[in-house]
């Protein structure tokens, strides 16, 4: 039997006069739709290798000027991303690639645990205020199996390990922010499933995965509140969790049964309880919790 060889090609293509450059999204709704469709295209790329087709190919049209081609000496293209994305530094989550985007499309900030420190917030404010209004949406993207959130959960479950961090101010500032979320998620699990939940075989992983969702939602919620006071107009903050295993963005969509694509953060702090409940009741988290 001959095993068929399959491969994936993702191509950045520019130059052909007949191929129009993709238009920029005009508002936050169009920007969200483009990110969702881009992620869907990326996630399903492997599935498209049906039958004897040996190569799954995705072409991303780019403007050659965004690669520094076609301008004169010393001329650089104007920065004009349509979205800002705050993601984790994790090497398995390449932001442009998973949203099917190219150069000059996204203003990307990556930091371990995708937390909203002051330099991150400053970068976002800069992008919103100084890029000529090109940014229509800000997306916070957590991801499954996040090492920073896992470290925070392990400290929560074994607090004496916190002492190991005593001399590391930089690491502590990342983990402290996540610990608040982990604590809240653990309380919600206790309320929902009873104190015995800590003995479920999947407790640690479920706590990590539930915290990842709430951590991203909280950052999006905070960005939204911070930017509203800055009179930044129609920019929206959304969030999601990139599932490394399926390559899809996952998040609860309030009032619907939908779990794919970027979602709105809760409207107020009280609504975070509702978000926590939805996440813990989701098929994904409950199957992790009950896994042997
Ligand atoms: Zn991570």
What does this structure look like?
With 292 residues, the chain is α/β, with parallel strands linked by helices. The protein has a single domain, classed as Carbonic anhydrase (Beta-carbonic Anhydrase, Chain A, 3-Layer(aba) Sandwich). 39% of the residues lie in helices and 14% in strands. The strands form 2 sheets. A 5-stranded mixed beta sheet has the order 4-3-5-6-7, with helices on both faces. It has a two-stranded parallel sheet with strand order 1-2. Helix 5 packs across helix 6. It starts with 6 loop residues before the first strand and ends with a helix. The model has no long low-confidence stretch (mean pLDDT 90). The chain binds zinc ion. Residues 88, 90, 113, 143, 146-148 line the site of zinc ion. Zinc ion binds next to helix 4.
Number of helices: 8
- The CATH superfamily appears as Carbonic anhydrase
Distinct small-molecule ligands in the complex: zinc ion
* Sequence of secondary-structure elements: EHEEHEHEHHHEEHH
Distance between the termini: 36 Å
Shape: globular
Strand content: 5-15%
User: Order of strands across the biggest sheet?
Assistant: 4-3-5-6-7
For this structure, the CATH topology is Beta-carbonic Anhydrase, Chain A
Rounded to an integer in angstroms, the radius of gyration calculated over CA atoms is 21 Å
Count of DSSP E strands? 7
Q: What is the overall pLDDT average?
A: 90
Unreliable segments (pLDDT under 50, ≥5 consecutive)? none
Specify the biggest β-sheet: 5 strands, mixed
* Coarse structural class: alpha/beta
What is the class in the CATH system?
Answer: Alpha Beta
User: How many individual domains?
Assistant: 1
CATH architecture: 3-Layer(aba) Sandwich
The amount of helix comes to: 25-40%
């Amino acid at each position: 039997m001959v095993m068929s060889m399959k491969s994936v090609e993702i191509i950045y293509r520019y130059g052909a006069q007949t191929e129009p450059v993709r238009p920029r999204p005009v508002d936050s709704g169009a920007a969200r739709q483009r990110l969702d469709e881009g992620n869907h295209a990326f996630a399903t790329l492997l599935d498209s290798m049906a039958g004897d087709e040996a190569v799954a190919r995705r072409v991303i049209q780019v403007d050659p000027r965004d690669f520094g081609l076609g301008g004169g000496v010393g001329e650089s293209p104007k920065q004009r991303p349509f979205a800002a994305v705050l993601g984790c530094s994790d090497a398995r989550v390449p932001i442009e690639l998973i949203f099917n985007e190219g150069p000059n499309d996204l203003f990307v900030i990556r930091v371990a645990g995708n937390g909203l420190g002051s330099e991150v917030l400053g970068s976002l404010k800069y992008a919103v205020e100084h890029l000529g209004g090109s940014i229509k949406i800000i997306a916070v993207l957590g991801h499954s199996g996040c090492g920073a959130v896992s470290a925070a959960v392990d400290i929560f479950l074994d607090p004496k390990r916190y002492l190991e961090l005593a001399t590391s101010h930089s690491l502590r500032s990342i983990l402290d922010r996540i610990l608040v979320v982990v604590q809240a998620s653990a309380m919600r699990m206790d309320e929902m499933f009873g104190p015995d939940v800590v003995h479920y075989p999947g407790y640690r992983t479920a706590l990590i995965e539930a915290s990842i969702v709430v951590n991203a939602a909280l950052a999006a919620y905070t960005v939204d509140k911070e930017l509203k006071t800055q009179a930044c107009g129609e920019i929206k903050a959304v969030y999601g969790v990139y599932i490394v295993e399926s390559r899809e963005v996952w998040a609860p969509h309030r009032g619907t049964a939908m779990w794919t694509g970027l979602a709105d953060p809760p409207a107020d702090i009280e609504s975070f309880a509702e978000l926590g409940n939805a996440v813990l009741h989701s098929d994904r988290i409950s199957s992790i919790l009950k896994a042997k």
